[in-house]
Amino acid sequence: MFIRISNSGGRKYLRLVQAYRDENGVPRQRQVAQLGRLDELDEPMVNGLIDSLRRFTGFGGSSEPAEGVEPAFERAREVGPTWLLSELWQSLGFSALLRTALRSSRREFDAEAAIRLMVFNRVCDPDSKLGVLRWLEGVVMPGISGEVFTHQRLLRAMDALMDKREAIQRALSKRLLPLLDQELSVVFYDLTTIRVHAEHERPQDLRRFGRSKELHGPARQFVLGLIQSADGIPLDFEVFPGNIAEVKTLLPMLERTLKRYPIERVIVVADRGLLSLDNLAEVEQLTVQGGRALEYILAVPANRYGDFEAVLEPLRFAQDVHSVREGQWQNRRVVIANDPERGKEQQQRRQDKLNTLSELGERLAAKLDAQDEGKSERGRRASDRGAYARFSRAVHDAHFSRFITPVLDTDRFSFAINESALADAQRLDGKLILVTNVTDHAPEDIVLRYKALADIERGFRVLKS
Percentage of the chain with pLDDT > 90? Predict the structure, then answer.
């Protein structure tokens, strides 16, 4: 509370005013008491009022701490990010939307506030549901008191959100519709796998054994798919079983998105690990509203670059600046971007690995040669087969079998470097290869569309961190 002077009838009055926030978190003020005219107040009256406040509240008459009493310092609480998010939350209309959708006479707590709390935590400092409650102790959340929420109530709010998911997403789509370009919508679609630690599958459980994007091998997991507009606005998401084929996730999500948003054209931008060159024909059979073919921009994975050597052979790229060229592959448009700086970095990393492995191979061979000459070293005697096994394992772990071949010829260890493979790899350094059926975009625009996919991938990294 604080004192404010107001003018009325040519006179000044003192008022006791209280600041507060209403149920929607909007700052408000209200008058608590009228203290009288300013010109009629004298020092004894003011001191008497102060003494009365001290007497009834028990506070001392001095601002200095009492003798022998150490001042107590409370931990500072963070306020900036949560207040900013609160203003965005209100301006987007999320509060009213969720209150309407989650209204229930049987629920003893504010589900919208619980959802808002978990969303803000996810943006500011992602943590578990129990971690959310600990995080709340160190921040100021407009309209939210930490004593109101428990771990169980946060879980119940999540259940309520899932029960009303379809209604909430329909309402959200109406609010997002004015923000979207309806004539041309470039849709970014990506999947990520989220691993769980368990050994056995259960019936009706989405957590299935599938190929993990992180481990590049089998893991128990589920798959999260997300569709995002070119402006970075999430349009839809879905959770799939961990063993689902990636191309099968695309069509149902697109159909649902097209029903919610009257979009005439869709260009799906997909990363290397999402759609493969082998299922392009299946993707090209997909259609959107009006029977129009689905358009796509697909990045080629590095392990398939060898399929495009005939396309790259006649192309020439600038040595010191970014450049973009295009060609044809299996009657499909191919766009190739060259980044010289990235190419130099890739070449240097490969050369460093090659040098490390070559030095290892030469040390092993030199030790064997020294033994043959009668020069023994401390430790167990080396053998050609042992050196071959050790070097082969090092080459395999470095994923360098394409460039270095361990040799055990007539029980003698050696190794060979594939200069031709190194030259082929160097020719592909710094290259980004995109396959697309979009015909009315310049090659540079195709590359820019794909690079914008980094936003959604960055969001996945934040989600999983």
Answer: 15
How confident is the model at residue 455, as a pLDDT? Answer: 65
**Cα gap 247→257, rounded to integer Å:** 16
Helix axes 111-124, 151-163, angle to 10 degrees: 100
CA–CA gap between residue 42 and residue 27 (Å, rounded): 33
**Closest to 311 in 3D by CA, of 406, 146, 433:** 433
Tokens 């030790």 -> residue: 367
What pLDDT does 120 receive? 92
220, 196 Cβ separation under 8 angstroms: yes
pLDDT tens-digit profile of 116-153? Answer: 999 999 888 878 888 888 888 888 888 776 667 888 98
Q: Write down the pLDDT at residue 278.
A: 66
266-270/185-195 β-pairing: parallel
Six-digit token pair at 347? 């070449």
Q: What is the CATH number of domain 180-339+430-464?
A: 3.90.350.10
DSSP conformational letter for 181: -
The β-bridge partners of 190 are 226
Q: Is 81 helix (H, G, I), strand (E, B) or coil?
A: helix
Q: Are 424 and 309 in contact (CB under 8 A)?
A: yes
Distance of CA 52 to the CA centre of its chain: 57
Per-residue DSSP letter, 143: T
Rounded CA-CA distance 436/288 in Å is 17
Structure tokens at 351: 């050369």
Among residues 197, 222, 225, which one has the least CA distance to residue 211? 222
Report the pLDDT value the prediction gives residue 184, as an integer from 0 to 100. 46
Average pLDDT (182-194) is: 68
Distance from CA of residue 4 to its chain's centroid?
48
Amino acid at the residue 365? A
Interatomic CA distance for residues 78 and 72, integer angstroms: 19
Picking from 236, 246, 225, 228, the residue whose alpha carbon sits closest to that of residue 186 is: 228
| Whether residue 450 has pLDDT greater than 90 | no
Residue 140 DSSP SS3: coil
Q: What are the boundaries of each domain within the chain? A: 2-42, 80-169, 180-339+430-464, 341-374+383-425
Q: Tokens representing 257?
A: 């998105």
Q: Dihedral (C-alpha) 442, 448, 453, 458: value to the nearest 10 degrees?
A: 180
**Which range (32-41, 95-104, 285-294) has the least confidence?**
285-294
The pair of structure tokens assigned to 243 is: 């063993």
Window from 55-59, 98-102, 299-303 with minimum mean pLDDT: 55-59
Distances (CA, A) of 13 to 3, 44, 80: 10, 18, 35
Q: Which of 69, 112, 70, 79 is nearest to 94 (CA)?
A: 112
